[in-house]
Amino acid sequence: MNVPMELSRVLILDSGSEQFITLTEQAPPEGRSPRSFAIKIGTAEAMAIERRLRGIAPPRPQTHELLESVIRSLGGMLERVTIHRLESGTYYANLVIVRDGETIEVDARPSDAIALSVGCLIPIEVAEEVLVESAEERPDVEPPIEAGEGDDDE
Fold first, then answer.
1. CATH code of the domain containing 9
2. pTM higher than 0.90 for the full model?
3. Which of 23, 31, 109, 111 is 20 to 30 Å from 65 by CA-CA measure?
């Protein structure tokens, strides 16, 4: 079973090469807090996600715009992205493309899949077992708190 998620945070740190994105469950069952988890990504990927979130169009197509254009030009439609596996600390994602009634799944890095999802306004889904495993296998992957976050005075 896949769980609808949303990109809830992009953390770009000046002090290192590891950046973070956080996905949060969209509609948890009543009485339960939404589950979330962070994924470490590279700086270029974080900047691409941030740019697409802000709707900033580059003067020339970059990788994600190119892939989006190729999918459309070949008669496909990006339907959703799924993060379907967590293995040895690495997340695995698929682009789910529909063309002529056929569903095609293409392997992708989660950061690239999420960059496409935010630019194309399509759903992000995470397999239930990945949510469970991420809580068990990766409890130490927590992005740093930014200055001002978590302050009780707000």
1. 3.10.690.10
2. no
3. 23
